[in-house]
Amino acid sequence: MACNKEHRYDLRFENLPFDQGGAGRHRCVGCAFEKGYNDGFARNEQLSMDLDALEESQAGPGRHKSPHAAYALGYLKGVEDSYQ
Ligand SMILES: [Zn+2]
């Protein structure tokens, strides 16, 4: 299943490290970011990225970027926003 959401073009993903040949190479970093954000906002302590559950993506600045880094970025943003 390929992701068609606008978050594929989010410029925040431009500076994420590349996932060269890793398991997450073709996963959507936008979806990873949203999952991390939701876990962070809820301040979940038992975290699971579950890479296989993320949609795939071949487009935008997030192409071939690390979903692990995107998840972590989303988690931090979610925690920050939960204190607003
Ligand atoms: Zn996505």
What is the alpha-carbon Rg in Å? 12 Å
Query: What is the percent of helical residues?
Result: 25-40%
Biggest sheet architecture: none
Question: What number of domains?
Answer: 1
Give the bound compounds: zinc ion
Number of helical segments with 4 or more residues: 2
How would you classify the helix and strand content by structural class?
A: mainly alpha
How many strands appear in the DSSP assignment?
0
Looking at the structure, what is the overall shape?
A: globular
| Termini gap | 35 Å
> DSSP strand (E) fraction?
under 5%
Q: What is the oligomeric state here?
A: single chain
SSE order, one letter for each helix or strand: HH
Q: Give the mean pLDDT.
A: 91
Which stretches of 5+ consecutive residues score pLDDT under 50? none
